[in-house]
């Protein structure tokens, strides 16, 4: 490959995996080098990587405002890849690796080219769900590789939910002891660090989601007196509902828990969930009903939900973390922080929702049309590709608040046996929609390039 | 989060079931009759001492490749991770005696093969008896699903009596190796999993429009010109032999389909003059259509090809296709129009199609083979021999049941595939729809219904290759397997769910990348992933 230069003596801060990607799967590897003098064509000896910023960001984590732009010039004898920050260099390396191709005789070729590239949207994510099914580390890491091939830069790790709690907490080990599917189906602190670092080396942020107050059945196994006991005719039924918003102990727990999460996950943002809260259990519980009266919420349980969410937002804010939430939190009129990111997921009239969210001055991330777990027969990648995220009524200023989107692969019917073929290359359609220019919309052309890209990913996995 | 409300309510019970421990030792597909003694005991099975043995008086013993290979194959399936634990306080079951009453080991399974078996497990003694080796194979698979493992790592089997036989004799799976080439290992692995599910027919839809991977010794140009890649994406004669023998050792018939006259674009490059040149007005357009039915050369070609195919594939039946013939190209061709007039067919191109198919059926019959055809051949009033099997595939709001009635009323045997197109994926637990199908749910006499010989799950290849074949096929294919093997009365979806979840975990343990049915996990999940 070549020297990386970036200001005062910096070591190469990305590993040589791209060498393997470009040359590793050569059909003619055993043949050795052919004398190129016979061909008389100019040779490319080196790819020089130049990182221009004084502080390239090598040892830090990528963030929402990182620069991912790069400039690639391919001419003999030395190609030059320039980027402001190391994250741009990673994107450029991926592009470079895709430009190199093999001819029928085993020679590696690249066309002279000049590329000026940068992403259209800054937040380009993939959601993985490790609660409905545990995903072994290998699966997650392979997926991070695939994301990097597609210039995705956010892993939204929906790590726990109703069905299982695989996250091994340092302060509350019982959560996974009792809540994981089984003792070996957990993510230890080492596992978590590995994912975060593996992602970082690919310029991918890891945003964990600890979804509350709904979607928390598994939390109740290891944490007594956290979930709301449901009642029937004045008697507890033995089953539980969402997190109990009326007890102080709930907030004591959450404060301690999110303190840990804030230190374990380096990204500036934590996703707090807040979706699909079923009010029926709250409605049945006498203490909750009493609390509603005291607070003057009447029978509007959305107010109780917002009361809870606001407290959590405050807690997480105090740890200097930004928050992402699902759209219900906004829809139910909780008081959000100005930089709270709202994730729009409900498919029905999502353009209208984008208008509302951005119209109220909040940043938005779009997922509604990109639920990749909703499989169907045929070339559904086309409908993902055809989405135009900014197709909603709003001012220029508003549209700037849509910072990107996420392809979601919910795990009800997905585990390591089918994750990769279900996610890829369908997610690649979303990847291009979020990176490339808005006028790159031709389906026939996309089909040709995507089939090629798919074959390339096949050889790299 | 993602599931729509309706879906969530309907699977809520299944969610609860998914979190309960499954029924250990439940067999998939469910046997016809299975009972355990009251207070049922269990018998430890000491892995290191266990062996299969031919029972005294068995017509088939050591030296029978089918059984020898099966015994070798089932040992690691039974005892994946043997430990040293060997309890001494109970009489162990150290041996499964296998008794086969009819000799015959070197032949091929057929539509008439008897697959019944009895399995008797009591304290210290286990006996599997079957009429034929094929029945013994079915019994061995059942036996392998009955052996469990306790917390101490000891293998055991519950005392049980099983009497089992298939409801339908033709229980097939279709793979398409033309839309995407399937490497040999993918086909062989599929045959393994078919055996676990007691499927007994591999319907090999080997060539079609996109590619011709079958290496023909008579017409080598067919694959040279028609395969995606003539070196790497072909099935050599030895590949084909390997598939046939691998299948035979699992009691699986291989029925090859060379679909004509439509679905033959890939035949064109290697057989100039075979396909119909389409016309734009008076000029050939450069595009080709179905096989040209008016030339003698066509029938000479077809005779020679099927002569070869008849020798290569030992099963009595060949599948001749005959589906989705597009008439537009024929209609555009002046020579064909002239022929139509000559023969007095008028504008009815179905008559031309019938003209071709009838001659093909005669050719195949003269080669000593039976024919299976897609339903259009019947629908278009082709004159068929009475023993032709009609394959019902068109699905339109349960119309297929009417078709089954029509086909059987006309006296033909029928195969059902219409509701079992596993390539048509959709969100959620679609295995349930496949499971609920009742092949005999049409108006007809018992004699008519007896003409339904079974069905086939189809995995067409437009969107399927080795990267996604296995998870897409299994465990959904299992729903079809049980519907075709088990009694008509076995229909409870909740019970099936619990057993299929467990069976899926068994498949995972055997290294098969079968996808999940719903949320949950398997013990020992990550051996191979």
From TrEMBL, chain A:
It comes from Lamprotornis superbus. GO terms for molecular function: beta-N-acetylhexosaminidase activity. There are 3 forms of beta-hexosaminidase: hexosaminidase A is a heterodimer composed of one subunit alpha and one subunit beta (chain A and B); hexosaminidase B is a homodimer of two beta subunits (two chains A and B); hexosaminidase S is a homodimer of two alpha subunits. The composition of the dimer (isozyme A versus isozyme S) has a significant effect on the substrate specificity of the alpha subunit active site. Its EC number is 3.2.1.52. It is found in: Cytoplasmic vesicle, Secretory vesicle, Cortical granule; Lysosome. Residues 17-99 form the Beta-hexosaminidase eukaryotic type N-terminal domain. The active site is at 276 (proton donor). It comes from the Eukaryota. GO terms for cellular component: cortical granule; lysosome; membrane. Its main location: cytoplasm. GO terms for biological process: carbohydrate metabolic process; ganglioside catabolic process; glycosaminoglycan metabolic process. Residues 121-437 form the Glycoside hydrolase family 20 catalytic domain. This is Beta-hexosaminidase subunit beta. Keywords: Cytoplasmic vesicle, Disulfide bond, Glycoprotein, Glycosidase, Hydrolase, Lipid metabolism, Lysosome, Signal. It catalyses: N-acetyl-beta-D-galactosaminyl-(1->4)-beta-D-3-sulfogalactosyl-(1->4)-beta-D-glucosyl-(1<->1')-ceramide + H2O = a beta-D-3-sulfogalactosyl-(1->4)-beta-D-glucosyl-(1<->1')-ceramide + N-acetyl-beta-D-galactosamine; Hydrolysis of terminal non-reducing N-acetyl-D-hexosamine residues in N-acetyl-beta-D-hexosaminides; a ganglioside GM2 + H2O = a ganglioside GM3 + N-acetyl-beta-D-galactosamine; N-acetyl-beta-D-6-sulfogalactosaminyl-(1->4)-alpha-L-iduronyl-(1->3)-N-acetyl-D-6-sulfogalactosamine + H2O = alpha-L-iduronyl-(1->3)-N-acetyl-D-6-sulfogalactosamine + N-acetyl-D-6-sulfogalactosamine. Pfam families: Glyco_hydro_20 (PF00728), Glycohydro_20b2 (PF14845). Hydrolyzes the non-reducing end N-acetyl-D-hexosamine and/or sulfated N-acetyl-D-hexosamine of glycoconjugates, such as the oligosaccharide moieties from proteins and neutral glycolipids, or from certain mucopolysaccharides. The isozyme B does not hydrolyze each of these substrates, however hydrolyzes efficiently neutral oligosaccharide. Only the isozyme A is responsible for the degradation of GM2 gangliosides in the presence of GM2A. During fertilization is responsible, at least in part, for the zona block to polyspermy. SUPFAM superfamilies: (Trans)glycosidases, beta-N-acetylhexosaminidase-like domain. Gene3D superfamilies: Chitobiase/beta-hexosaminidase domain 2-like, Glycosidases. Belongs to the glycosyl hydrolase 20 family.
Automatic annotation (TrEMBL), chain B:
Residues 168-487 form the Glycoside hydrolase family 20 catalytic domain. Keywords: Disulfide bond, Glycoprotein, Glycosidase, Hydrolase, Lipid metabolism, Lysosome, Signal, Zymogen. It catalyses: N-acetyl-beta-D-6-sulfogalactosaminyl-(1->4)-alpha-L-iduronyl-(1->3)-N-acetyl-D-6-sulfogalactosamine + H2O = alpha-L-iduronyl-(1->3)-N-acetyl-D-6-sulfogalactosamine + N-acetyl-D-6-sulfogalactosamine; beta-D-GalNAc-(1->4)-alpha-L-IdoA-(1->3)-beta-D-GalNAc-4-sulfate-(1->4)-alpha-L-IdoA-(1->3)-D-GalNAc-4-sulfate + H2O = alpha-L-IdoA-(1->3)-beta-D-GalNAc-4-sulfate-(1->4)-alpha-L-IdoA-(1->3)-D-GalNAc-4-sulfate + N-acetyl-D-galactosamine; a ganglioside GM2 + H2O = a ganglioside GM3 + N-acetyl-beta-D-galactosamine; N-acetyl-beta-D-galactosaminyl-(1->4)-beta-D-3-sulfogalactosyl-(1->4)-beta-D-glucosyl-(1<->1')-ceramide + H2O = a beta-D-3-sulfogalactosyl-(1->4)-beta-D-glucosyl-(1<->1')-ceramide + N-acetyl-beta-D-galactosamine. Residues 27-146 form the Beta-hexosaminidase eukaryotic type N-terminal domain. Belongs to the glycosyl hydrolase 20 family. This is Beta-hexosaminidase. Its EC number is 3.2.1.52. GO terms for cellular component: lysosome; membrane. One of its GO terms (molecular function) is beta-N-acetylhexosaminidase activity. InterPro entries: Beta_hexosaminidase_sua/sub, GH, Glyco_hydro_20_cat, Hex-like_dom2, HEX_eukaryotic_N. Disulfide bonds join 64-105, 278-329, 505-522. GO terms for biological process: carbohydrate metabolic process; ganglioside catabolic process; glycosaminoglycan metabolic process. Hydrolyzes the non-reducing end N-acetyl-D-hexosamine and/or sulfated N-acetyl-D-hexosamine of glycoconjugates, such as the oligosaccharide moieties from proteins and neutral glycolipids, or from certain mucopolysaccharides. The isozyme S is as active as the isozyme A on the anionic bis-sulfated glycans, the chondroitin-6-sulfate trisaccharide (C6S-3), and the dermatan sulfate pentasaccharide, and the sulfated glycosphingolipid SM2. The isozyme B does not hydrolyze each of these substrates, however hydrolyzes efficiently neutral oligosaccharide. It is found in: Lysosome. Residues 1-26 form the signal peptide. There are 3 beta-hexosaminidase isozymes: isozyme A (hexosaminidase A) is a heterodimer composed of one subunit alpha and one subunit beta (chain A and B); isozyme B (hexosaminidase B) is a homodimer of two beta subunits (two chains A and B); isozyme S (hexosaminidase S) is a homodimer of two alpha subunits. The composition of the dimer (isozyme A versus isozyme S) has a significant effect on the substrate specificity of the alpha subunit active site. It comes from the Eukaryota. The active site is at residue 324.
